[in-house]
Amino acid sequence: MPEGFSKGAGAGTLRLAEVLAPLSLVTDMGMGSPDEHAMRACLLATSLARRAGCPEDTVRDVYYATLLRHLGCTATAAEEASHLGGDEIAARPLIGPADFERPSEVLGVLRSIGGGRPVRERAGIVAGTMAGFRWGPGVQRAVCEVASILAARLGLPEAVRIAMGQMFERWDGKGEPAHLSGERIALPARFAAVASRATAIADLGDVDAALDATRASSGGWLAPDVAACFVEHGRDLMAEIETLDVMLATVAAEPDPPLRISARGLDDACRAFGDMADLKSPYTVGHSSGVAALAEAAGRALGLAGDDLDDLRRAALLHDLGRVGVPAGTWEKQSRLTSADWEHIRLHAYYTERILQRSTVLARLATAAGMHHERIDGSGYHRRAAGRDLPLAARILAAADTYDAKTHDRPHRSALSREQAAALLTEEARAGRLDTGAVRAVLDAAGQPAGPAAVQRREYPSGLSEREVEVLRLVASGCSNADIAERLVISRRTAEHHVQHIYDKIGRSTRAAATMFAVEHDLLTTPTPPLPQRVQTGEMGDRCSETCVTPVGWVIGAPGGRPRRSGW
After folding, report:
1. For 441, what's the count of Cα atoms within 13 Å in the CB-facing half-sphere?
2. The CATH number of the domain covering residues in 280-454
3. pLDDT tens-digit profile of 472-515?
4. CA 58 and chain centroid, separation
5. CATH architecture of the region 461-520
6. Residue 468 CB contacts under 8 Å (≥ 6 apart), including other chains
């Protein structure tokens, strides 16, 4: 078990379940599920495992494997959105519970998906869904691999990590990523599959529909013995769960002895969830860690220490949790945002605050984390707070978030140089939008030779060479092999060779997992070569003049009555 995590009473300061139960709300958002879906599925799976006579160690594995079943949901969000009309969140509740080996369920998905969209758009979404037989397996492999990696970083038992890597396996061997069948599939994964699917179907319809679907998929998708246990006990268990305070019940349901977490383990958990949120877009990988490094250094310079500095660092790591609840197509958009897009964007800070407020452990971080887009003059969001209403931690976060965002590429703009970003932040402070002291401290932190922007590595993990690290950065930024070849002026075959060799060295098999490796080992601190222009030169100039107004956030009042985007 990693340092910072332990088992047994008194071994650590906090119960891990008290941290992870509320953070499971992040995966609910990412999957388009109702609040507390993961916790209700966890309660159901845990009860089924106990009814089936499983030992308590196995019940614990079932508990965590089900609670965090969708921990890897951001790993492929952008790719899924590209096939599903830009909104993977709307599609996932329909696609996820469907047994695609049963034609009747496939037809049900195709009849429902894209509902409410214009005819042409809906036709594209239906076509993308049907093409899922081609792109779906790769998505499932990446999601499983990233979920397993994150489970390890959270200090979860090996059995849970194994189960997380098997979440899309099927009893009949037709699943992903390894086409395991029968009892070769880990028992926690079998319980998680039944409970999560049943809960998802009940969310869409009723318990009878969940019972019918479980019977129909028994022996195909689902393990027959676990399915039979649900058919026998599911109705009563689901009725009981509906009467509970789900958050309290989920924490209480963890088997003894509970897993515990120290202060260092809490930092690791915050960093893992921050990285998970950043995976929502290739453009934001490593953003939360970068903001945390700047904010912590700036906070220390401004006199924060002890618990206050710890809270600032953790709030910075978690400030963009709400990003997971916004469709990936909105984050990837290169053109002007619609009013509906703007509403989605503005809510992400609110989502962050709401999730953290649900946690007895993390509630103290909610205010600062939720205010990272507020401005001194009241022009920010989501509360339009101003002046004395903004605590020091929120002011530091706003400046650190702005600097890190502006020095990295986004879909609608190229990165600024560090000097350009410093000038922009200074102007924002002069204009009364950012706090002058916070800006000065953040810029000092960014300019320190030992700071995150100036790290020069001589030795790299897993024996990676300088060129391989450069290639890995491009992989993490979303580049194809052809893009890598163009940027590095090498042949495509050489680029493919580099990528495969890197995957072999680091023990990862998907882009998302390789990206996690780069984040974990701080390999993204040096900017990658410029991204190929996504729009023509003339369009880029016009767009920047129309949309780049303040360093971070959105300013209402653009031409045409739409909000103007300043960058994120």
Report:
1. 26
2. 1.10.3210.10
3. 999 998 899 999 999 888 889 989 999 999 999 999 999 999 99
4. 27
5. Orthogonal Bundle (1.10)
6. 460, 498, 501, 502, 505
